[in-house]
Design brief:
The chain has 500 residues and is mostly helical. The chain has helices at 2-27, 42-98, 101-106, 111-114, 121-161, 165-188, 197-253, 255-258, 274-279, 293-305, 312-327, 350-359, 381-395, 413-427, 440-445, 473-483, 487-496, and strands at residues 263-271, 363-371, 374-375, 402-405, 433-436, 451-457, 462-468. Helix 14 links the parallel strand 4 (402-405) and strand 5.
């Protein structure tokens, strides 16, 4: 839009300069003045005077009609300006009320229950039609008057031919002066004549006045589209949430087991890959907000870090902030605009950049899982292992036997006791758990129905297995020796602990 504005402005300025040069050249060919004779022929002089007075009246009438036409044009401009502002008002109203949708749905209300915007555009439409009709009638009248003036000028020329020498020379001068004046008026023109100096001045003034209004309207429309795109993302988020709800319900039902993990399940709209994709459009060697590889990346990351993409306003503000930096010159006071296209890599277009930034394709609903308010990527290996076991033991609906090799790895004994033991106890109620472990909390506190003790004879390379319940004296002794480090070691530790 700004480039089109610039091109239009340059074209108007070029045409205006050409017309001024034409006027300057026309001034140099003005007829040399001739003194009016003292005693012209009375009859011819009277006829000539009458026609000249008639010509003067027609010229004055044309001037009045042109002023009237100019006022009509100004009125039409005001109507057009009001129509544009009404569109902006309606667009802004729709955009703002769109953001209320979730709250209104929750309260079972509609926008119309709270506020109604009534715009009577018919008044302006009727007024516009009336003004256009008047303007057309004025234009027709001016055309008729100009034709009558041309006929009268010709008649004056014919009467002048009948005069004597000095009078004839004077009248010839008057005719030439009249033609010169008419040509001068054609160059200067009127506001309603597009290719004249006055018309071009008006066009330039209107461009300065109308383009900001049009830009304001288009920006408002642009933001409204972004809001509609975000609403589609929210709809996708709601669809994702339907699949998360059963997990959340299960977690609430098993709060006694899952409580120590501090699990929270959610669906959020997250950003992905914006920095690399956006900067692939930008020529970072050009001066601007995204100049320099490191500086450009830092600027984009700062914008991303300051945005909560799960919030509609933040997401749209982010897109606007990116484009604002792209469109605005840095280190200038007051702020000035720059050409976006000049900052792009070769082969890239302004439309591509705007489509990407405003299209929000870099946002998508993502299943979000936290453990003690920590995101999954930031969890320690032990915490990740615990989380994985929680899904296998509790959330997996399967009833087939489950084999687990040393689930206590990367976990301290307190976590094993507070989390793993309740999970395994809950899981074994619906499926068989076969587990290899060196941890007494798992083998003993989980109330194993059967314990298998494995002993390897390294000399004969034979592995012997002994199986039984914990109540078996032999199994009990093996459990004490292997998992507790023998009974004396267990009692030694026990005697040193404070009992509370």
């Amino acid at each position: 839009m700004k480039r089109a504005h610039g091109n239009s402005s340059n074209k108007i300025n070029s045409e205006l300069h050409q017309q001024r040069m034409t006027l300057q050249a026309h001034r140099k060919v003005r007829p040399e003045p001739v003194v009016e004779p003292l005693a012209p022929n009375p009859g011819e002089s009277n006829e000539l005077s009458a026609k000249q007075r008639e010509r003067q009246q027609i010229q004055e009438t044309i001037e009045i009609l042109r002023r009237d036409t100019d006022e009509l044009r100004k009125a039409l401009t005001s109507v057009d300006s009001l129509k544009t502002r009404l569109k902006i008002l309606q667009q802004t109203f729709a955009q703002n009320t769109l953001q209320w949708e979730n709250d209104l749905r929750r309260l079972q209300l509609s926008v119309d229950d709270i506020v109604v915007l009534q715009v009577n555009s018919e008044v302006l439409q009727n007024m516009e039609a009336t003004l256009k009709a008047k303007s057309e009638r004025r234009a027709d009248t001016i055309l008729q008057q100009e034709k009558a003036l041309a006929v009268l000028v010709e008649q004056i020329s014919m009467v002048t031919e009948k005069l004597d020498g000095p009078a004839k020379a004077y009248q010839a001068y008057m005719v030439q002066e009249e033609k010169w004046a008419l040509r001068r008026q054609e160059i200067i023109g009127a506001p309603d004549q597009p290719n004249t100096i006055c018309g071009l001045r008006l066009a330039r003034a209107q461009l300065k006045k109308d383009v900001p209004l049009q830009l304001e309207y288009l920006r408002s429309s642009r933001i409204a589209v972004v809001h509609r795109i975000f609403q589609e993302l929210l709809a996708s988020k709601d669809t994702f949430a339907q699949y998360v709800e059963p997990i959340q319900a299960y977690a609430r039902q098993h709060q006694d087991v899952l409580g120590p993990l501090g699990l929270s399940f959610d669906v959020q709209i997250n950003e992905s890959g914006f920095a690399s994709t956006f900067l692939s459009y930008i020529n970072q060697s050009m001066k601007g907000a995204f100049h320099g590889t490191d500086q450009a990346l830092s600027t984009v990351k700062t914008l991303i870090a300051n945005a909560n993409f799960d919030n509609e306003k933040d997401a749209t503000d982010f897109a606007e902030a990116v484009l604002d930096k792209l469109e605005t010159a840095i280190d200038t006071s007051p702020r000035s605009s720059v050409d976006v296209h000049s900052q792009l890599r070769q082969g890239r277009t302004t439309v591509e950049v705007y489509d990407y930034v405003l299209g929000l394709t870099y946002l998508q609903p993502v299943f979000h899982l936290q453990m003690h308010h920590k995101d999954l990527p930031t969890l320690s290996p032990g915490e990740r292992g615990a989380l994985l076991l929680a899904f296998y033991l509790l959330l997996d609906p399967s009833t087939i036997p489950l084999v687990i090799d040393q689930p206590e790895e990367n976990m301290d004994n307190q976590s094993v006791y507070e989390f793993l033991v309740p999970c395994i106890k809950a899981a074994k109620a619906k499926r068989q758990i076969i587990m290899v472990t060196h941890n007494a909390n798992l083998a003993v506190v989980c109330d194993s129905e059967q314990i298998i003790y494995a002993q390897m004879d390294k000399v004969n390379e034979v592995i012997r297995y002994t199986a039984g319940a914990i109540e078996s004296p032999e199994i009990n002794r093996h459990v004490t020796d292997v998992l507790e480090g023998t009974m004396p070691a267990f009692r030694n530790r026990q005697n040193k602990y404070f009992t509370q």
